[in-house]
Structures are given as structure tokens and as C-alpha cells.
Amino acid sequence: MALLNRVFTTRTLLQIIFVLTTTIMMKAISAHYDFSWATALAAG
Question: Which residue ranges traverse the bilayer (predicted)?
């Protein structure tokens, strides 16, 4: 466990959770509004 604690600090875990949460929320919003981020980015 000591090795895991050194590799995964609290800050790293919070960043991972934040990125995952953001990704899931964006996917949920895209599905809800039938909106694709890929087409929006491609359109510029």
C-alpha cells in the first residue's frame, strides 16, 4: 500500500476523478441534446 500511496497522491486521484466526471458529464449532455462534440469541432 505504501507504493500505491506514493504513486497515487491525493492530488493525482482528484485530477483523475475530475477528468472522468467531466468526460461522463459531457457524454451525458451530448446524448441528452443529440449534440456531437466531434462535428462541432470539425465545423470550427
Answer: 12-33
pTM of the model: 0.54
- Three cell numbers written together for 20: 472522468
Q: Give me 16's grid cell.
A: 483523475
The residues spanned by each domain of the chain are 1-43
Round to whole Å and give the CA distance between 15 and 26: 16
Where b means 16+ CB within 10 Å and e means fewer, 10-40 reads: eeeeeeeeeeeeeeeeeeeeeeeeeeeeeee
Q: What is the pLDDT of residue 10?
A: 84
From CA 38, how far away is CA 35, in angstroms rounded? 9
